[in-house]
Design brief:
The chain has 703 residues and is α+β, with helices and mostly antiparallel strands. The protein is built from 22 helices and eleven strands. α5 packs across α6, α7 packs antiparallel against α20 and α12 packs across α21. The radius of gyration is 29 Å and the shape is elongated. Belongs to the resistance-nodulation-cell division (RND) (TC 2.A.6) family. MmpL subfamily.
Length: 703
């Protein structure tokens, strides 16, 4: 056992500095926020969605186009036109619209439906024009294009625009969701503390930390590939984690005040105990996020860096900004805390719950585990992919364009496959068109260097399982036979093929990712708690909560529960949820078990340590979880399907982790472990570094 020391720790000295120089600490944070914000506004951002998958077939198709048809590197937009009496009767209006579009900024070319073969439906009621855009066309110019098209509609002529640039321009970042989450968090904190001022302290800490990180990420995007969805995802995690960490420290501060300490000493003890847990928990979140680097996927590296940076900044705010705020507003907060103290017995209900769980540990373990296992089962049938316009909300212009094209040309027109051939392509079209699941195929179009390309239209929608089966059939059966006869080589690409490739790459690398994240986190827990069983228990339970949350996401978004549009789960959502949830689960694990460890070191009574650990942390863990749940759950209101899936997955995971695992399963398991919970083999004990979350209460209190 470590011998206590009276020397103040680094966190104690940091808290003392923030208390003495509270106005300086606040001023520095405000200056940093202002400087980063202004600089990022002047410099701008360079977000780039890197979906490259080196070595995959779909990526080879993209590289072939870049080499042999560089003029086609820009993206395209479809202007879909429909009229019950036939689009040809509206030719003058359509030509006028397309002429206006051709003069707009960043429009490289326009193909009229009346001069493009196959661009008018067989019954003549639906047609589409293809608008080629310059690479990296600004979103505001795409929105102007949308407005121009919609202005031309009327008198029976329907105009809708489709394509990835339109979808990206239409989707918002979820600002309303963030505001709703913060407001709900404020309500919970006011209810918890009975004071608007006390409730505002954790929120101000989180907002300043997240605000500083937003600008920093925009600047970093110039040197690191950062996807366009990184900022809203970073805010989703940052707001929840920032409030969470500040609340954990603030709750310990309140406990120290109620135990009779003065404000300065209470803040320093809170930083030296809960602050240590926050730093350790934050490090586990960062490790889990950086574990995404093991996947080697470009689209995830930037997200991992952005969210890890956010967690790092929130940790810094929790241990520097929070003590300063407690000094500025401490007197009023203390008065309110002490006035409410006489009306409640601290931790009594949680102590009773822990006692009930310890009396029936097997039942308290088996029933919740069975529930989590049942919720995890749907995740086994999860279908990964990428959302398209067919999963957009009804009423959006991209969804209208999708539906009109499917109505006029068949469902496969919204997700054509691209077949690239190098060498003989003479017998390719016949072989492809005779394949089950193919509605039609265009004649091969020559590019350069003996390379040609052909569009293949499935007879099913892009999100249908039949379309993905068609990709596999072409790649493994049809095209290899043609290649054997002709000596040519063939590749299958397109959005559906890319989704399959991405899902395959993720599945292949997932075991390494899980091993890295779980292994490093388990080693950290073993070093802190000097235990072999606690890290193993934490890893298993965290995996169980993640499985259950992914099962719920599959039920809602994959199988259409509650009337949600059925479709695939975004291919990178499961690994992101895994990384974030695994790290966040460690937050509550560390905070709860650290308090148990405190009591174990003090009394050597395992049952007592479990009861007092839950009594001391149950209230703050569930309150912090409730805040996380409303912050994450608010993103279900976002118009972006990806953010909806993230929000639901994270909210469900935190709900199950805090209210089921930490309040029921962990106390039951710790009761069954008994003293064995704190056992560590001697060899491993000597090999692991000694990391402490508890510091002797006699730490220096002088400044």
């Amino acid at each position: 056992m470590n011998t206590p020391t009276s020397a103040p720790s680094r966190l104690t000295r940091l808290a003392a500095w923030a208390q003495r120089r509270h106005w300086l600490a606040l001023g520095l944070w405000l200056v940093v926020l202002a400087a980063i914000t202004v600089t990022s506004q002047v410099v701008g951002a360079d977000y780039h969605d890197d979906h490259s998958l080196p070595g995959t077939e779909s990526q080879q198709v993209i590289e072939t186009f870049e080499e042999h048809a560089p003029a086609q590197r820009g993206e395209t937009v479809q202007v879909v036109l429909a009229h019950d009496q036939g689009v040809a009767a509206q030719r003058d209006r359509v030509d006028a619209l397309l002429a206006e579009v051709s003069r707009m900024p960043h429009v490289a070319g326009v193909q009229s439906p009346f001069t493009t073969p196959g661009a008018v439906s067989p019954d003549g009621t639906v047609a589409y024009a293809t608008v080629a855009l310059d690479p990296d066309t600004p979103a505001e110019d795409v929105r102007s294009l949308i407005e121009t098209g919609q202005t031309a509609a009327g008198d029976g002529l329907r105009v809708a625009l489709g394509g990835d640039p339109v979808r990206e321009a239409e989707e918002g970042g979820g600002g309303a969701a963030e505001g709703a989450g913060i407001l709900a968090a404020l309500v919970i904190l006011v209810f918890m503390f009975g004071s608007l001022l006390a409730a505002a302290v954790p929120i101000v800490t989180a907002v300043l930390a997240v605000g500083s990180t937003i600008g920093a990420i925009a600047l970093v995007s110039w040197v690191v590939d950062m996807p366009s969805y990184a900022p809203p995802l970073m805010m989703l995690v940052g707001i929840g984690v920032g409030i969470d960490y500040a609340l954990l420290i603030f709750s310990r501060y309140r406990s120290e005040l109620l135990s009779g300490r003065d404000r300065e000493h209470a803040a320093r003890v809170a930083l030296d105990t809960a602050g240590r847990s926050v730093l350790f928990a934050g490090c586990t979140v960062i490790i889990a996020l950086l574990g995404l680097l093991a996947l080697g996927l470009g689209s995830l590296r930037g997200v991992a860096f952005a969210v890890a940076l956010t967690v790092l900044v929130t940790m810094a705010a929790s241990v520097t900004l929070l003590p300063a705020l407690l000094t500025v507003f401490g007197r009023r907060i203390e008065r309110r805390i002490r006035s409410r103290a006489s009306r409640r017995v601290h931790g009594q209900r949680w102590r009773a719950l822990a006692g009930a769980v310890q009396r029936r540990p097997v039942v308290s373990l088996v029933v919740p585990v069975a529930l989590l296992g049942a919720l995890s089962l749907p995740a086994l049938d999860m279908r990964l992919g990428f959302a398209d316009a067919g999963t957009e909300a009804e009423g959006s212009t991209t969804r209208e364009a999708y539906d009109l094209l499917a109505e006029g040309f068949g469902p496969g027109v919204n997700g054509p496959l691209i077949v690239v051939s190098e060498g003989d392509s003479g017998s390719l079209r016949q072989a492809v068109e005779s394949t089950p699941g193919v509605a039609s195929a265009t004649p091969p179009q020559s590019l350069s260097g003996g390379v040609s390309t052909m569009l293949v239209f499935p007879d099913s929608a892009p999100q249908d399982a039949a379309t993905h089966e068609l990709v596999e059939r072409l790649r493994t059966d049809v095209l290899p036979d043609v290649a054997e006869r002709t000596g040519a080589s063939y590749l299958v690409g397109g959005s559906v093929a890319a989704a399959d490739d991405f899902a395959g790459e993720v599945s292949e690398r997932l075991p390494l990712f899980i091993l890295v994240v779980v292994g490093l986190s388990a080693l950290l827990l073993a070093a802190v708690f000097r235990s072999l069983l606690i890290p193993l228990k934490a890893a298993v339970l965290n995996l169980l909560s993640i499985g259950a949350s992914l099962g719920v996401v599959t039920l809602v978004f994959g199988q259409g529960l509650f009337g949600v549009q059925e479709g695939p789960i975004e291919a990178f959502v499961p690994v992101m949820i895994f990384a974030i949830v695994f790290g966040l689960s460690m937050d509550y694990e560390v905070f709860l078990v650290a308090r148990m460890h405190e009591e174990w070191r003090r009394t050597r009574d395992a049952a007592h340590a479990v009861r007092e650990g839950l009594a001391g942390t149950g209230g703050v863990i569930t309150a912090a979880a409730a805040i996380m749940i409303v912050v994450f759950g608010a993103f279900v209101l976002s118009p972006d399907r990806m953010l909806q899936q993230f929000g639901l997955g994270l909210a469900v995971a935190v709900l199950l982790d805090a209210f089921v695992i930490r309040c029921l399963i962990v106390p039951a398991v710790m009761r069954l472990f008994g003293e064995r919970a704190w056992w560590l083999p001697r060899r491993l004990d000597r090999a692991l570094p000694n990391v402490r979350l508890e510091h002797d209460e006699r730490v220096g209190v002088s400044s």
